[in-house]
Amino acid sequence: MRIYPKIIQGGMGIAVSSWPLAAAVARRGQMGVVSSSGLDLVLARRLQLGDIGGRLREALDQFPIRSVAERVLARYFIPGGKAPDAPFRSKPLPSIRPSQAILELMVVANFAEVFLAKQGHSGPIGINLLEKIQLPTLPSLYGAMLAGVDFVLMGAGIPRAIPEILDRLARLERVELKLDVVGAQASEVFTTTFMPQEFGPPDIGSLKRPEFLAIVSSSTLAATLAKKCTGRVDGFVVEGKTAGGHNAPPRGELTLDETGQPVYGPRDIPNLDQIRELGLPFWFAGSFGSPEKLRQALDLGAQGIQIGTAFAFCNESGISPDIKARTIRRCIERRAEVFTDPQASPTGFPFKVLELEGTLSESLVYESRQRVCDLGYLRELYRKEDGTVGYRCSGEPIDDFVRKGGDPAKTAGRKCICNGLLASIDLGQVRNQGPEPALVTAGDDVSNLTRFLRSGQSSYSADDVVDFVLSGSTQELAP
Question: What is the distance, to the nearest Å, from the Cα of residue 367 to the centroid of all Cα atoms in its chain?
Fold first, then answer.
């Protein structure tokens, strides 16, 4: 019988779940997960900071095609790093027909992150992607598979096509992904494609096919994926409304409470009997970072739990040390609060925002920021009058969005999640009006971070999280 890890470390934000965190968790025999979101940009900016410690160049040295890695280094690496007040060099935005340069960057970035996460241990490593961010998906998956990723996790949508895509990538076959395009006519199908053989050594025959875990919030979605995907679904992460980042919207008509947050009801609680009947392993997510919650999950038939917020603020995570310290201080003072914002994300999904001074959670900071969309990961694809695909984001300048046919009402309260999340990991762009303000996401469980602090300490490690969650029955619960 297959023994799965009891703990999956969540794939959070942009480079919050970076390779040092994933490796730290995997060294304990649990599943470490890196976030694929924006990895091409993360690699480009880290190289421009001089690749302190040289680990990225170490990973790129292992990329199967040396010329590809050398081109990435030539474009972005700055020995000694850029000047602190100099802006980061831009890179091409994701598009339906990406250039060779952006394809190379996406493949190499995902390879490097997984390669580094897998060094020095034999624990499992996964990679997390968002179904809503479709354009980088194919090259990102392939880059991760070149590095031997063990699991692929995907949520924020219905990833029906991914299992078969993993099968085909493992066989080095051409892959295609149908894109969601607003206004597309019934007879129109828009796709993006990828040719894996252009990015592998000529003597490579096949790749390991990683296991696929779909992140779901309902038993209906789990059943649909298990029964209707043409490829194999290997399990599920059943995520509740208290998890950080993007949440599934409530079923039915949206209703807000007195604070302006979405109201979830009985229809939003997954039917566990139906999930168990699928016969596939599953994990619970959303405020499950405790020994009691782990025991509860196991008693309900789960393999274990996924933990995000607790790992997001540990020493090894990618979040700015200053933000981590201020957040933990607020927890100690019992002032840590999270707002489930129904308007913040351009995706339309509710997005959990940590309330923290000097960040986009404050109205004055949000209103003083000049709207710009120069990263483009959450842009909406739409059909233009000539039948081609255009790109727009409700977080971009309002006039630009409306000019592209967007509804101006959708711009109200929209935040630039891409730039904000990068600023939260100290990779924010430097602009004439000052540095980009951070946007920090966390689950409702953020108020409980003090449970991981040892006496007299104001910070904690990934080991502290694992030790606490497995405490009381370590031998029985550890894989």
Answer: 26
Phi, psi dihedrals of residue 299, rounded to the nearest 5°: -65, -30
Q: Which H helix or E strand runs over 306?
A: strand 304-307
Q: Which structure tokens are listed for 355?
A: 């309330």
In a domain, 160, yes or no: yes
Percent of the chain with pLDDT over 90: 75
Q: For residues 445 and 237, what is the distance between their CA atoms, to the nearest angstrom?
A: 17
- Phi, psi torsion values for 329, nearest 5 degrees: -60, -40
**What is the CATH number for 195?**
3.20.20
Per-residue model confidence (pLDDT) at position 436: 94
Q: How far apart are CA 328 and CA 337, in angstroms?
A: 12
188 domain-assigned: yes
What's the rounded mean pLDDT across residues 391-402?
95
Q: Which domain holds residue 130?
A: 7-318+452-477
> How many Cβ atoms are within 10 Å of 256's Cβ, its own excluded?
12
> What is the tally of structural domains in the chain?
1
- Whether 221 is covered by a domain: the verdict is yes
Residue 176's SS3 state is strand
